[in-house]
Amino acid sequence: MTRTLRAIAVFSGSNFGRGEAYRVAAAALGRAIAERGMAILYGGTHMGLMGVMADAALAAGGIVHGVITERLQAKGHLHPRLTAHEVVATIRQRKARMAELADAFVALPGGIGTLEEFMEVWTLNQLGEIAKPAGLLDVQGFYQPFMGFIDHMIAEQFLPAAHRAGIVVDADPSRLLDGLANFQTVSAPKWLK
Question: The CATH number of the domain where 94 resides is what?
Answer without folding.
Answer: 3.40.50.450
